[in-house]
Amino acid sequence: MGERLEAYNTIINDVKEQEKIVENQIKHEVEYSHDDQMLMFKEGLKKEIETYYEKELNDLKVQSATESSQAKLRTKRELLNKRQILVENVFKEVESKLKKFVLSDEYVLYVEKCFSKIKCLDENSVFYVNEKEKDFFKEFLSKKSIKNDIKQTNLLIGGFKVINSNVNIEFDFTLDTKLKEAKKWFQNNSGYTF
Fold first, then answer.
1. Residue 165 CB-half CA count within 13 A
2. pLDDT digits (tens, 9 = 90+) for 138-166
3. With a threshold of 0.90, does the pTM exceed it?
4. CA distance 160 to 174
């Protein structure tokens, strides 16, 4: 029985050793599995954080580009508005100077020069002027012994038109037309529309 007891004790010790080995293996596997899961969790979390940062960075870039674009657009609009105001002021000033020019002695020279360019002037030719200049043109034409009709037209600045309907010719020496032509030239050549 001593041998049996000894064999029994040996078996129990072997089982206990095997139990410890298995227990240590299980603990090791659990720790390894836990470490592995933690590592996977950390890597997943790291990827999520990187993706979040990337998304936020892209959102910031898009927002920055949008704000920059909007700022450029606002600046461009403001610049165009200022240019438009400047151009309008320039043309208002030109119009004002033209109205003063009509009252000057130089205007008579302008009318003389324009009158010398008229071809096909006959009794069917009609002069068109604004109301304020009708008397001036009556006197001007009478000095040249011309008795053609003078009709009033809607001119804001001055000058005159001569229309001969028999030969379908029109001579336009109105300052209103000259100003419109200058605006059109500016519009076509400045790269700026108003």
1. 5
2. 999 999 999 999 999 999 999 999 999 88
3. no
4. 5
